[in-house]
Specification:
Length: 199
């Protein structure tokens, strides 16, 4: 409980909030007993920026420091900005994994606020159309979410050096359609394996 950071491979992952703009039925949050890569990511309270920075230690030790969750870190935008600024000042590289709904959530374009702080943004798009995306992920903005995420990915290219669209290989889900969307948006596509209760 209260795992704020954990190492996986060459990267350090940050868990700064369990809040999210989606309520995916497959999310580990429904079964916290299932650890993510051996880590219990349930937060009793969200860590302060100072606590996260202390948990990071030396960001140069890692290939990337990744805001991941379980939860969408961009729901805690001010902390993401403050922590990312510190990571950059200490020669680290920042990636954000997100559901891509932050602009809709805040009702404004937040991406310019991340300029110069974040090297990579990885946007999860599990669903190849509004209906399928809504059914698979239960997003806050229902079927409107799908187009919001695509707009977010397009806009992200103006502010963040590397934009990636990712999709999980769910059984029965035609992932090639999401790959095609990524191509149309002109961003890199990354397929992620389906691991029961992981994302
Ligand atoms: S986007 Fe991630 S953290 Fe949010 S509900 Fe879905 S699986 Fe959970």
């Amino acid at each position: 409980m209260n795992t704020v950071s954990y190492v996986f491979g060459d990267n350090l992952y940050l868990n700064i909030t369990n809040r999210c703009m989606m309520a995916c039925p497959y999310c580990i949050k429904h079964k916290w007993a299932n650890k993510f890569k051996g880590n219990d990511l349930k937060l009793e309270k969200e860590p302060s920026c100072e606590e996260v920075i202390e948990a990071i230690g030396d960001p140069k030790k890692y290939n990337e420091v990744i805001f991941c969750g379980y939860g969408d870190s961009l729901i805690n935008l001010e902390s993401v900005k403050e922590i990312s600024k510190w990571i950059k000042e200490n020669s680290g590289k920042v990636r954000i994994n997100t559901a891509g709904l932050a602009n809709r959530y805040y009702g404004k374009n937040i991406l310019p606020e991340l300029k110069g702080l974040v090297e990579v943004i990885s946007i999860s798009l599990n669903g190849s159309n509004p209906k399928e995306h809504n059914e698979l992920n239960h997003p806050m903005f229902k079927e409107e979410s799908f187009n919001e995420i695509i707009k977010f990915a397009e806009e992200a290219k103006n502010h963040i050096p590397e934009v990636v669209i990712t999709a999980v290989e769910f059984p029965g889900f035609d992932i090639s359609k999401v790959e095609k969307i990524a191509k149309e948006v002109c961003v890199r596509f990354k397929m992620r394996p389906y691991l029961n209760n992981e994302y």
